[in-house]
Specification:
Layout: E1 20-27, E2 30-37, E3 53-60, E4 63-67, E5 74-76, E6 81-84, E7 90-95, E8 101-108
Antiparallel strand pairs: 1-2, 2-8, 3-6, 3-8, 4-5, 4-7
Length: about 110
């Protein structure tokens, strides 16, 4: 048996010109990743639309997310989490440019979906 371990707040990528997605664990319909953002946002008119559900936890920095049809932008600060149902279109409006915004993202299949 091989044990994996690490620290989500260390070993950050030195280049902050692009968001960095790091796969931490994957098994069946489950994927866990660390995302490091440094001032990035979704391109104008772009919306994420995933077949999987997503649960995100903001560990450091800050960000603003918009869910399609939502009344207000979700401003996220350390400790804030958000569940995004499958096919709930969403976009990142902004991430903190002064410090890394570190996310823990858990993607999983929809229970009972074909």
């Amino acid at each position: 048996m091989q044990i994996a371990h690490g620290n989500l707040l260390t070993g950050l990528p030195p280049d902050s010109s692009a968001e960095v997605f790091e796969l931490l664990h994957q098994h069946g319909g489950l994927k866990i990743e660390r995302v490091v953002s440094s001032g990035q946002a979704s391109p104008p008119g772009f919306w994420y639309d995933s077949q999987q559900e997503e649960w995100v936890l903001l560990l450091s920095g800050s960000a603003g997310l918009t869910l399609e049809g939502g009344a207000a932008e979700h401003v996220m600060r350390p400790g804030a989490w958000l569940h995004i149902p499958a096919h709930c279109r969403h976009r990142i409006e902004w991430t903190d440019a002064a410090q890394p915004t570190i996310w823990l993202a858990i993607h999983h299949d929809v229970p009972g979906a074909p």
